[in-house]
Design goal:
1 helix, about 110 residues, SH3 type barrels, about 10% helix, hydrolase activity, 2 domains, about 30% strand, mainly beta, 11 strands, three-stranded antiparallel β-sheet, N-terminal domain of TfIIb, elongated
C-alpha cells in the first residue's frame, strides 16, 4: 500500500505526488505537505527563549507582572505548574499560587 497521506479535503486514499505537490484525483485538491508542516510549526506556542510549550508543562515567570484590577504582583521566578494552552492574546491559562486563576502571555514565561 502507498505511504502517501490521504487527501485532507475528501479523505481519499488515491493521492499522488506531482513534484512538491500532492494531488487528489477525486476532488482535484492540491496541497504541499511541506507547507502544512511549516504552518503547524508556526502555530506552536513558544516561551521567551523559543522552547515549544505544551499542555501540562511547568513554567517560570521571567518578569514582574502587575495583575489588572488588583494591587498584587506576580514576581520574577514564580513557578507555575500544569499550564493549559488556549487561543487568544493571553495564550496560557494557569493557576498562580497566592493569586489564583490567570491568563499569561507566553513571552513572559520560561519552560522549566
Amino acid at each position: 500500500m502507498s505511504d502517501l497521506p490521504p487527501c485532507p479535503k475528501c479523505n481519499s486514499a488515491y493521492t499522488y505526488e506531482d513534484g512538491a505537490l500532492m494531488i487528489c484525483p477525486e476532488c482535484a485538491h492540491e496541497w504541499s505537505p511541506a507547507a502544512d508542516a511549516a504552518a503547524a510549526d508556526a502555530n506552536a506556542v513558544r516561551d521567551s527563549v523559543g522552547n515549544i510549550l505544551q499542555d501540562g508543562d511547568d513554567v517560570t515567570v521571567i518578569k514582574d507582572l502587575k495583575v489588572k484590577g488588583s494591587s498584587s504582583v506576580v514576581k520574577v521566578g514564580t513557578k507555575v505548574k500544569g499550564i493549559r494552552l488556549v487561543d487568544g492574546d493571553h495564550d496560557i491559562d494557569c493557576k498562580i499560587p497566592g493569586i489564583g486563576q490567570m491568563g499569561l502571555k507566553s513571552q513572559f514565561v520560561k519552560k522549566i
